[in-house]
Design goal:
14 helices; about 325 residues; alpha/beta; five-stranded mixed sheet; six-stranded mixed sheet; about 20% strand
Length: about 325
């Protein structure tokens, strides 16, 4: 991939996260290290997506109770004191990227309250996927901010992690890097806007597609400018689709994601799909414009880390 990670003076109008504190610590001191940030933590206000939160920051005593926040932590080399897992296991793509002291506080759909409380965090970063009871229980332990799972909020999410951890400048740099990488990719792929792309995920043996606002779709359709198939425009979240329906979707390029952990009862689902006669009749398949697992299926899709990995994969596979 053409290496494009250069800092730019690009105006970051997308940043909506702000902060204020009743302290006099300089910005350079705040960003020196996570350990120092813990010592300097003072009570202040962080504004995230229009809501104010009062907490002690910058701090290293952060529990990341969502994979969006864990990906942001990995991107900024923040080492949370607690994090969630899937079935008790850390996904491969995050192993070794969050430090060696992070405590497993339970499943991503509902962390263990006692495990979180035992860590005495200054901040809990949850998920907007949490139900109200989970959020209420976590709020009793420490200030809790539910991180948005919508892809369009990726820059706000990264800035939130940077502000809370004392790495706000690093977060700004990564956001600028992505914008630069994006523009360079589009410059090299001048005909992107003439092609329709579809991303399909196999879950429990079924084909799933997403609406325009979820998973990688905001990046594909808004950031990169691929055309959106009309069938995708009408979807609100995620939905299943039959092979017969998929064969009718007008897509020039199809990306297929398959994870064994999401298909434990259907371990051969991907191989079966490749041999299916209907699948073989799909124009993108016959034109050899279907790409399988170009990124790890664990990535959330709507984070800085996910976007950079996808951008690199698209480039390496000469997609677009």
């Amino acid at each position: 991939m053409k290496k494009l990670f250069t800092l730019s003076a690009l105006s970051l109008s997308i940043l909506l996260v702000g902060c204020s504190q009743n302290k006099t610590t300089s910005s350079s001191e705040e960003s020196t290290s996570t350990q120092q940030s813990e010592v300097q933590a003072k009570e202040g206000t962080i504004t995230y997506l229009g809501q104010d939160y009062t907490l002690k920051f910058p701090t290293s005593k952060i529990v990341t109770a969502s994979f969006e926040s864990m990906e942001d932590a990995a991107a900024l080399s923040v080492e949370p004191i607690g994090g969630v897992t899937i079935g008790g296991e850390m996904p491969d793509y995050l192993k070794g990227k969050l430090g060696d002291k992070m405590v497993n506080v339970g499943d991503k759909f509902g962390p263990n309250v006692e495990a979180v409380a035992a860590l005495q965090p200054d901040l809990i970063l949850g998920s907007t996927k949490f139900d109200k009871d989970v959020t209420n229980n976590l709020t009793k332990i420490a200030p809790t901010i539910n991180v948005s799972h919508k892809s369009d909020d990726w820059a706000n999410n990264l800035t939130l992690m940077g502000t809370a951890s004392g790495k706000e400048d690093q977060a700004k740099k990564l956001i600028a890097d992505y914008q630069n990488d994006l523009e360079s990719f589009k410059k090299d792929k001048s005909d992107l806007t003439s092609k329709k792309i579809l991303i399909v995920r196999i879950r429990e043996g079924e084909l799933c597609i997403y609406g325009p606002d979820f998973y990688y779709n905001p990046m594909l359709y808004k950031d990169l400018g691929f055309q959106i198939p009309s069938e995708v425009s009408a979807i609100k979240g995620q939905t299943t689709i039959s092979k017969e329906q998929l064969a009718k979707v007008d897509a020039d390029i199809i990306l297929v994601q398959f994870m064994p952990s999401e298909n434990k009862s259907f371990p051969n689902a991907l191989d079966d799909l490749k041999e299916d006669a209907i699948w073989k009749s799909v124009p993108a398949v016959s034109n050899k414009q279907v790409f399988y697992n170009i990124v790890d299926g664990g990535y959330q899709g709507g984070t800085y880390l996910s976007k950079e990995v996808m951008l690199k994969a698209l480039n390496e596979n000469n997609i677009g």
